[in-house]
Each structure stands twice: as C-alpha cells, then as structure tokens.
Amino acid sequence: MNKEVLNKAIETYGINAQLDMCFEEMAELMKEISKKKRGKDNHAELVEELADVYIMLKQLEIMCDVNPKELHGNIYQKIDRLKGRLENGRKN
Hints:
By secondary structure, this protein is mainly α. The chain has a domain at 3-66. The protein has helices at 3-13, 15-37, 43-63, 68-87. The model has no long low-confidence stretch (mean pLDDT 96).
C-alpha cells in the first residue's frame, strides 16, 4: 500500500476528518453486508466498500502509531484462539 499517499491524505484532511471518514466507510460496508444478508447480489459494491474500509484502516494504523509487528502479533494470537475454539467445537 502506498504509505506516501495515505500520509498525504492525513496531512491534507486532518486526523479528525480521517477518523470521521473511517466511521463513514465502515457504515457503508455495514450497509452492504446487511444487503448481502437479505439476499441481494451486491458483490461489486461489497468489494468496493471493503476496499474503502481497508484503506481507512491502514490510515488508522498510521494515525494511531500502530506498529505492524504488534498488530500482526495480535491478529495471529486471535486466529490461534479462534482455531482452538473451532477445534473444541465452541461457538463463542
């Protein structure tokens, strides 16, 4: 991902505006997920909103000074926990 462009967006629009944009993009993705659950064929729209959220999450990493190693460590830990639950037949 082009970190220069993401940094420029944060610099241009400001942190608060980009945090608001993160909320907005997540809400749009939620709307498309809801449509999918109701049976709508909205694959293209879902992918578009997922891309927008992904970009905003990358900006959120920058704005909150999240170390990628720290983030990936947490991701792997949570996936391992999920794997354990699945192997034990637990749903929560």
